[in-house]
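Appendix B. Raw example, untouched.
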Amino acid sequence: MPAIVEPTAVREVYQEAAERRVSLANICPEDRRSLEATLRAAWEFGGQIGVPDLPIIISFTGSYPDRPQLRLMTTSRELVLGFELMLSDIAVFMSDDSPYRRLRVLIHLDHGQPEADAELLEKRADRLSTVMYDCSTLPFDQNIEKTRRYVERMRGRVLVEGAVDEIYEAGSGRQKNEPTTVEQATRFIRETGCFLIVPNLGTEHRASTSEKRYRGDRAREIAHALGRVIVLHGTSSLSLDELANLKEDGIIKVNVWTAITRDAGQALAKHILQDLGNYFDETELRSLQMQGHLGDLYFRRDYVERECKGRLGPKLASFSEPPRRDAWVAAAVQRIRFYMERFGYERYAHK
């Protein structure tokens, strides 16, 4: 089926997740390979539990300075080109010819920058399920007012996620990493009309490793006051128990990507190292060994016979995309399924 973007239908997906006490997985693919890994993980998990129409959120940033994903889609670094490529790939993967077609896919623009991403936020938002309108670099009162005006402009077109936070103290240039209070979250929701909020629960990207401590107690307090409207960013520092408890803490959506691409990237690196005898001939491998990059493995007869069909040297099958893609995707799928298990997706199988 096509991606779900109509606001009422999007609300229904979130309402069901809230009723089932599931934290929706918000995965942040950066290209076709990682997009399919996301869909494949949800498709496989759905097949395992007998629910082929599981919801999954495809998320990406535009011009967010920390990671401008749509701009990184192509070497041209063009924002709109990256956006159109991502949405066209999603459309094809959700078409009638795709094994993933029964999934309920939501599309989210994360960390939308009011000025740098204006083309998407103002003109193309109705092709998205939700957008995060990120005014967290502004003083809190200005954040509320600017977000409120955007919510008004987008009413009936797209549901808005807001950042209940202030990254910098006004005029000081010093970073802040103070947990959001219940009072701040309540005021933000009331005055902006946002559908979802991203409070600072101690795990944000800008916190140092020593500072990161997930505030589950604060999440529960906010959820008790406002319901399941909380989005969590920055899960890399959470323990296994904390990950598994997010659905009980009132977190409705969880952003995950770093650990997924790390696992997949490492799997790809190992695949290439194992296959190196099919990339270079013996002379080139000896040169790499002389430079200290390689040991004796690649010159052993058992390696050459097992991995290189009896001959060191370049082979087309190793240079093509499929083997590298498959190594990357397999590891990414495994990690995404790990998150879906922790977030309570098996609850979709319960009537």
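End of appendix B.
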